[in-house]
Structures are given as structure tokens and as C-alpha cells.
Amino acid sequence: MKIPRVIRTYCPRCRTYTEHTVTQYTAGKRRTLSEGQRRYERKLLGYGSSRKPKQKTFYKVTKKVTLKLTCRQCGYVTHRTIGRLRKVELVEAR
To answer: What mean pLDDT do residues 15-20 have?
Structure first.
């Protein structure tokens, strides 16, 4: 799907419709010292099975795409999930 790099949409901080630059959201690096990660690693220690059952086959072909919208006026960032897509292409507006 082709998505324009700049869209005009509502900004909650400006409380008006402004131009936003669009980029694709990517998750950040996992923190190994966070409480949840330490708890997960502690549960994996010792004998016994894994903490959660292993998934036999992965039946989803695509991931859900999240867009990161940055307001050009104030720099406020919002996220917008647009669903499952095989390919995302950011293009210049016509």
C-alpha cells in the first residue's frame, strides 16, 4: 500500500488540523534489566517446560502496521494502526 509522507490530520495538542510527517513505527530495544524481563528469565530457569506453550505453526502471514505521525507545528507524536499489510511504501504526495 502506498502511503503519503505528509498528511493533513487532527493534532490533539494544537486542537486543529495540521500537516503531519508519516514514518513507520518500529519497536525499541528490549530492556534486559526491566522487572518483567527479569521475572520472565527467572521463570525459565530450572527443570520443566517452557513458561508458555510453543506455537506449532505460525498462521499469520503479515504484521499489523503502525504509523508514527509527527505534527509539523508542535512536534507532537501520535500513532495510528492501519491493519495488516504485506508491503508498505511511503511516497511523496501527488
So the answer is: 97
pLDDT at 16: 97
Query: Percentages helix, strand, coil for the chain, rounded to the nearest 5?
Result: 10, 40, 50
Closest C-alpha to 70, from 79, 62, 61: 79
SS3 category, 72: coil
Q: What is the pTM of this model?
A: 0.76
Nearest one of 86, 70, 50, 84 to 9, comparing CA atoms:
70
- CA atoms of 36 and 30, how far apart (whole Å): 11
Q: Are 10 and 78 in contact (CB under 8 A)?
A: no
Q: What percent of the chain has pLDDT over 70?
A: 98
The DSSP H or E segment spanning 37 is helix 35-44
Cell 512536534 maps to which residue? 75
